[in-house]
């Protein structure tokens, strides 16, 4: 039997837990033509949620372009990626793709080539580093043109939105501002995990996207939703897990979707059919998870300065609510001075490794904290 707990990619259908309220909130936002920034830590389920919400919209009368900005690193790449996503969302069949691209993006010289696997792929004749100004305008005006005069409703989702900060200029940011203001019939969703960067983009008066849209912070999934979800998946394989152990899993992960699925995935493997999950199994599962993440954590750790490492070790070792600039904390953790601690805090905040918490700070990734405790605090 296949392990029912999936972690890593987009989850859908049976692997998707709850998010009932969030799904309907987003559907409503799209129906109302809202512009919304959906923000959360990494691997909280933004992509899966938005995909699920898009799936709830009627097929007829709606055009939904989902744009993954992750691979883009320039304005020109942005233009072709958006043009491709819009084209694909408008094409009813593979055969129609080129025709659609010519209708909407004729000036970008679309063509269809065959990729290494023999599949047709849409490409545009826009050099990677050419000045994309007019093409940028054309592409970003297209959703409103599609929606105009009784046309279909349009939704455009930009996933991994923080990527636009890598383009080396703010043309995309500026153009998006005018698009957002002038396209009432189009809903735009911006998804991002670099909360810190995106907040800076929308909370700074001098930036084009200042207060350009609403905020939708995505939280963890509550234990009451995990309880039936986890129990049922164990039961389907004739494995038993009691309420208390599910509770412990949720405490450990604080409802973080990726970690909850990952711990459960390992637990499910460790538990034989007709057996019951035990406390030892749970401990072993956490160990496996930390080992699997160890490579990423080590790389991350090695990218930090000595003060940043010392600060994190200190934070991992202390209880929450610590006064981290107080002499006691500073000297106990070898930080030499309060201003040194302050610099470490600024750098760690900018990396999204720590977050503010009631006048103190916490390590955002709970398993990174556990890893630091187990590996680095010697
Ligand atoms: N509603 C959900 N139910 C169950 N598991 C979920 C849910 N949402 C997310 N997950 C878990 O989290 C993982 C990451 O989900 P997803 O890729 O949607 O998150 P993301 O926020 O888009 O991540 P990233 O920051 O990497 O883009 C999934 O593979 C799955 O294990
Ligand atoms: Mg994602």
Any idea of the CATH class of the largest domain?
Answer: Alpha Beta
The fold-level CATH name of the largest domain is Rossmann fold
CATH superfamily name of the largest domain? P-loop containing nucleotide triphosphate hydrolases
Tell me the radius of gyration.
24 Å
- Give me the number of helical elements: 15
Plain-language structure description:
The mean pLDDT is 92. This protein has helices at 20-31, 46-56, 75-90, 97-105, 133-147, 171-182, 195-203, 223-236, 243-253, 257-270, 279-302, 306-317, 327-332, 338-350, 366-376; strands spanning 35-39, 62-68, 110-114, 120-124, 153-159, 186-192, 214-217, 354-357, 360-363. The chain is α/β, with parallel strands linked by helices. It starts with 19 loop residues before the first helix and ends with a helix. The chain has 3 domains: 19-217, 3-Layer(aba) Sandwich (Rossmann fold), CATH 3.40.50; 223-299; 304-376, Arc Repressor Mutant, subunit A (Orthogonal Bundle), CATH 1.10.10. A hairpin with a 2-residue loop joins strand 8 and strand 9 (360-363). The longest helix is centred in the C-terminal third of the chain and has 24 residues, at 279-302. Strands 2-5-6-1-7 form a 5-stranded parallel beta sheet, with helices on both faces. It has a two-stranded antiparallel ribbon with strand order 3-4. A two-stranded antiparallel ribbon has the order 8-9. The site of magnesium ion has 3 residues, from helix 2. Adenosine-5'-triphosphate (ATP) is lined by residues 6-11, 16-17, 19, 40, 42-48, 193, 257-258, 261.
């Amino acid at each position: 039997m296949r392990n029912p707990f999936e972690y890593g990619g987009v989850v859908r259908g049976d692997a998707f837990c709850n998010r009932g309220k969030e799904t309907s909130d987003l559907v409503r936002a799209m129906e109302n033509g809202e512009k919304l920034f959906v923000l959360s830590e990494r691997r909280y389920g933004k992509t899966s949620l938005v995909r699920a919400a898009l799936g709830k919209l009627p097929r007829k009368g709606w055009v939904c372009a989902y744009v993954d900005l992750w691979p883009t690193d320039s304005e020109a790449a942005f233009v072709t990626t958006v043009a491709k996503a819009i084209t694909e969302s408008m094409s009813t069949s593979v055969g129609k793709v080129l025709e659609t691209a010519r209708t909407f993006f004729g000036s970008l010289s679309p063509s269809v080539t065959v990729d290494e696997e023999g599949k047709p792929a849409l490409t545009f004749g826009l050099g990677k580093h050419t000045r994309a100004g007019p093409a940028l305008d054309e592409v970003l005006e297209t959703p409103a043109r599609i929606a105009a005069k009784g046309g279909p409703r349009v939704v455009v989702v930009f996933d991994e939105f923080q990527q636009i900060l890598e383009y080396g200029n703010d043309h995309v940011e500026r153009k998006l501002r005018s698009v957002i203001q002038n396209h009432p019939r189009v809903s735009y969703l911006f998804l991002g995990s670099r909360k810190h960067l995106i907040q800076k983009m929308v909370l700074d008066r001098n930036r084009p996207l200042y207060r350009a849209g609403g905020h939708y912070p995505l939280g963890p999934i509550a234990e009451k939703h995990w309880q039936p979800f986890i129990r049922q998946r164990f039961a389907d394989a004739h494995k038993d897990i009691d309420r208390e152990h599910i509770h412990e899993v949720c405490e450990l992960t604080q409802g973080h979707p990726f970690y909850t699925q990952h711990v459960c995935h390992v637990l499910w493997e460790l538990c034989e059919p007709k057996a019951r999950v035990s406390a030892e199994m749970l401990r072993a599962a956490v160990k496996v998870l930390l080992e699997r993440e160890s490579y990423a954590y080590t790389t991350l750790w090695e990218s930090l300065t000595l003060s940043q490492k010392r600060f994190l070790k200190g934070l991992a070792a202390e209880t929450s609510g610590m006064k981290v600039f107080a002499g006691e904390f500073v000297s106990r953790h070898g930080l030499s001075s309060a201003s040194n601690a302050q610099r470490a805090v600024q750098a760690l905040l900018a990396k999204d490794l720590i977050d503010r918490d009631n006048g103190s700070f916490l390590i955002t990734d709970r398993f990174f904290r556990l890893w630091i405790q187990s590996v680095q605090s010697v």
